[in-house]
Amino acid sequence: MSTDWAPTVTPRPPINRARGTGDAAPNSCTRSDSTENDFTQLKARYCSEGDVNGSSAKSFLIIGGIFVTSIGALALVYLSFPNLGENERHVLKLPTTMDDAKALGKVLSKYTDTHYYQVLVAYFSTYVFLQSFAIPGSIFLSILSGFLFPFPTALFFVCLSSASGASFCYLLSYLVGRRIVWRHFPKRAAEWSLHVQRNREHLLNYMIFLRITPFLPNWFINITAPVINVPLAPFFFGTFLGVAPPSFVAIKAGITIQQLTSSSETVTYTSLLVMAVLAMISLLPVIFKDRLRKKFD
Fold it and tell me: CA torsion sign, 216 to 219 to 220 to 222?
């Protein structure tokens, strides 16, 4: 018998583990590639926008013009004020201390009955101006509102002024800050923007939480929100609702403004506890929604 015969063995084709062929790539690698692609697209998109939309110098000139125009509009508001006495005119200025707020409150309280709407418009305009250009002093105006107006009116206009001024600051930052950050820190900006996109459905809750809590200063939130692509609508309404609890505390303290010696006296342990509870409540929809999603998935 011949022993030259041997079974024919068909060689097995090599396994191609490249992405898209052969065995499936691990999920972590796919997720990493997807994230890197998102970063690349975001950087390309906004870096190109920065080049197309013009120079930063032009934007700063525009902001300077807006600032000067705002000062002019504010001056017109105060020119429409009733005639003040010689000893009252020097008090009519932006309060920077509690003594300034007390003196201003005494003067304005004389005119709230006869010139109520003029005082209200001047108050609203000044508050929006301070918030728009991130100028300190709005805390004293919040306290002062409790002394000048009925509580519901004061709370509504403080929240509206805060949300309106913060939105103007948002738009100014969109005009200048967004371009600068995306041009000089594209990867960091892309990471923040990607995080915002992934949590887009919860942005209102996060904004309310940030406004209630003191973790980040309000001016920082106003300036960075457009840089990381937070939409204006949840930004405005989140600010309106989020500033209500701390404003409630300040307005309540303003009722007894003459007894205060500093703005820090408006904050008590009880008010801090209440704001902490409200901050947690603002995140409950996010927590429960994520848990339900994981349960059904």
Answer: positive
